[in-house]
TrEMBL record:
Protein name: HNH endonuclease signature motif containing protein
Highest taxon above the source species: Bacteria
Organism the protein comes from: Pseudomonas canadensis
Keyword Nuclease (UniProt): yes
GO function terms (MF aspect): endonuclease activity
Source species taxonomy: Bacteria, Pseudomonadati, Pseudomonadota, Gammaproteobacteria, Pseudomonadales
Record keyword Nuclease present: yes
Pfam families found in the cross-reference section: HNH
CDD domains: HNHc
Positions of the HNH domain: 9-40
Keyword terms: Endonuclease, Hydrolase, Nuclease
Length: 61
Protein backbone atom coordinates (compact mmCIF):
# COMPACT_ATOMS: atom_id res chain seq x y z
CA UNK A 1 0.00 0.00 0.00
CA UNK A 2 1.24 3.49 -0.70
CA UNK A 3 2.92 5.13 2.25
CA UNK A 4 3.71 1.87 4.04
CA UNK A 5 7.28 0.90 4.78
CA UNK A 6 8.52 -2.66 4.46
CA UNK A 7 9.18 -4.18 7.84
CA UNK A 8 11.73 -6.79 8.84
CA UNK A 9 12.32 -8.18 12.29
CA UNK A 10 15.56 -9.60 13.65
CA UNK A 11 15.30 -13.24 14.67
CA UNK A 12 17.97 -15.24 16.47
CA UNK A 13 17.94 -18.83 15.18
CA UNK A 14 19.18 -20.00 18.57
CA UNK A 15 16.81 -17.93 20.70
CA UNK A 16 18.18 -15.36 23.12
CA UNK A 17 15.95 -16.82 25.83
CA UNK A 18 17.80 -20.12 25.35
CA UNK A 19 21.19 -18.42 25.73
CA UNK A 20 21.69 -17.87 21.99
CA UNK A 21 23.95 -15.00 21.00
CA UNK A 22 23.13 -11.76 19.22
CA UNK A 23 25.90 -12.34 16.66
CA UNK A 24 25.33 -12.02 12.92
CA UNK A 25 25.96 -15.77 12.58
CA UNK A 26 22.84 -16.35 14.70
CA UNK A 27 20.59 -13.61 13.32
CA UNK A 28 18.38 -13.33 10.28
CA UNK A 29 15.89 -10.67 9.14
CA UNK A 30 12.35 -12.00 8.64
CA UNK A 31 8.98 -10.53 7.81
CA UNK A 32 6.65 -10.40 10.83
CA UNK A 33 4.67 -13.46 9.67
CA UNK A 34 7.76 -15.64 9.27
CA UNK A 35 9.14 -14.39 12.57
CA UNK A 36 5.95 -15.45 14.35
CA UNK A 37 6.13 -18.79 12.51
CA UNK A 38 9.58 -19.38 14.06
CA UNK A 39 8.16 -18.91 17.54
CA UNK A 40 4.55 -20.07 17.50
CA UNK A 41 3.76 -22.45 14.64
CA UNK A 42 3.50 -26.22 14.82
CA UNK A 43 6.25 -26.48 12.17
CA UNK A 44 8.66 -24.02 13.84
CA UNK A 45 11.50 -26.54 14.16
CA UNK A 46 11.30 -27.52 10.47
CA UNK A 47 11.03 -23.85 9.47
CA UNK A 48 14.16 -23.02 11.50
CA UNK A 49 16.02 -25.94 9.88
CA UNK A 50 15.09 -24.40 6.53
CA UNK A 51 16.66 -21.12 7.60
CA UNK A 52 19.93 -22.90 8.39
CA UNK A 53 19.81 -24.55 4.95
CA UNK A 54 19.04 -21.32 3.07
CA UNK A 55 21.15 -18.76 4.93
CA UNK A 56 24.76 -19.86 4.63
CA UNK A 57 26.16 -17.57 7.34
CA UNK A 58 23.89 -18.98 10.06
CA UNK A 59 25.91 -21.21 12.36
CA UNK A 60 24.57 -23.47 15.08
CA UNK A 61 25.69 -22.46 18.54
Amino acid sequence: MPGEWPLLEAHQADHLARKGSDRITNAVALCPNCHQRCHRSSDRDAFTEGLYAKVGRLARE
